[in-house]
Amino acid sequence: MTATPSPALAGGPGGSGTVAVVATTAEVLAHPAGEAGLLTPGEQARLARIRLPHRRDDVTAARLLLRLCAAHVTARPAHELSPSQHCPTCGRDGHGRPYLPDHPDLGVSLSHADGLVAAAVGPGPVGIDVEPSTRRPAPLRMLARVLPAADLRAATAHPDPGPALLRLWVRREARLKAGRDDLPLLEWTDPHRTATTATTGPSPTRTALATLTALPARDCPPHTPSPGHA
Ligand SMILES: [Zn+2]
After folding, report:
1. Residue at 219 is within a domain
2. C or N: which end of the chain has fewer Cβ atoms within 10 Å?
3. Which residues does the UniProt record annotate as the domain 4'-phosphopantetheinyl transferase (predicted)?
4. CA of 162 to the centre of ligand 1 (A)
């Protein structure tokens, strides 16, 4: 069975844009997808090894949000989309950069930090990073090693350098995850969630968790060790 084609709106279902979402962990876990058994047994086993409950919740929510974004972009059911991971450093699977095996043309990225999660899915390389707006990045002498000197000077000259430095930081992280620093960057601060987010990709578009639809539970069988969902 094939999915019904959707209008090719940029950032919309089946569209050509990069969809980026930031939400709180609690929002994602309260979303219908949070109870839909979307995570594979392998993911669940890895999550079970995370000892800190709030961190386990953050990682769970980030992975669920990535599924929802991927379903939105591909117009396929979320339970059919299982991101894998590959580490470009050691060449092994199971950790490192996420990707969708059935959609090699799509880039995926996720981020989580202290009760906040973010995910981005779109054509080509994409990257996303979220940090609590109240967080302050590393000491200046460390930042000086990783950020362009001109950017750092501008940020420290800012009347309130903390948020300016944090914005530089999330931009850098998003670009690192995409593996590219020449793509359009979209950055925003969400005052309700006290989140500072940056995403990069060929055409980053911000959307809301509420626009990502989950499958009704009856259409979304829980993962069991059957051939279709092993
Ligand atoms: Zn590795």
Report:
1. no
2. N
3. 125-206
4. 32
Range of the structural domain that residue 121 is part of: 18-208
Instruction: Give 177 Cα–ligand 1 centroid separation in angstroms.
Output: 14
Q: How far is the CA of 224 from the centre of ligand 1 (A)?
A: 28
**φ and ψ at 179, to 5 degrees?**
75, 15
Neighbours of ion ligand 1 (CB under 5 A): 87, 89-90
CATH of the domain at 124: 3.90.470.20
In a domain, 225, yes or no: no
Q: How many CA atoms lie within 13 A of 13 on its CB side?
A: 16
Query: Which tens digits make up the pLDDT trace of 98-149?
Result: 999 999 999 999 999 999 999 999 998 999 999 999 998 888 888 889 888 9
Report how far ligand 1's centroid is from the alpha carbon of 93 (Å): 8
